[in-house]
Amino acid sequence: MALLFVATVAFAVHHPRASKPLEAPSFNTFLCALDLLLPVASFGQEGAFNPAGRQQWFAAVLIAVGWVLATTIATGITRTRPGQGQS
User: Fold this and answer.
1) Which of 1, 43, 51, 53 could be disulfide-bonded to 35 (CB atoms 3.0-4.6 Å)?
2) What burial letters (b/e) apply to 50-78, b meaning 16+ CB within 10 Å?
3) Bridge partners of 50?
4) How far apart are CA 22 and CA 24, in angstroms?
5) What distance in Å separates the CA atoms of residue 57 and residue 53, rounded to the nearest whole number?
6) 3-state DSSP of the chain
7) Cβ contacts of residue 46 below 8 Å, gap of 6+?
8) Separation of CA 7 from chain center
9) Is 0.85 surpassed by the pTM of this model?
10) Is residue 18 exposed (0-12), middle (13-18) or buried (19+ Cβ within 10 Å)?
């Protein structure tokens, strides 16, 4: 939740530019942050806007953290443990 808040504030301070300005949906800072953090869901913000410079690196970190969190949650749900099933 803290990372989602930080990302929302970061995108509110500086909006990334639209990939196709005439076709892009209106920019929503919360949905953009959520779109980057959730690897399986799409809210139409990630593909419509292109962060640049430091914001591009921040977006890449959000995507990586999102995948790590999703993998951790999936592993916790299935209760898969290393070495389980081996004799």
Assistant:
1) 43
2) ebeeebeebbeebbeebeeeeeeeeeeee
3) 17
4) 6
5) 7
6) CHHHHHHHHHHHHCCCEECCCCCCCCCCHHHHHHHHHCCCCCCCCCCCEECCCHHHHHHHHHHHHHHHHHHHHHHHHHCCCCCCCCC
7) 32, 35, 36
8) 9
9) no
10) middle
More confident position, 80 or 26: 26
Closest to 19 in 3D by CA, of 3, 32, 1, 2: 32
Q: Which residue in 2, 27, 29 sits closest to 13, CA to CA?
A: 29
- CA atoms 80, 82, 86, 87: torsion sign: negative
Confidence of residue 85 (pLDDT cuts 50, 70, 90): low
Of the candidates 45, 20, 41, which has an alpha carbon nearest to the alpha carbon of residue 31?
A: 45
| pLDDT tens digits, one per residue of 27-82 | 888 988 998 888 888 888 888 888 888 888 999 999 999 999 999 888 888 875 66
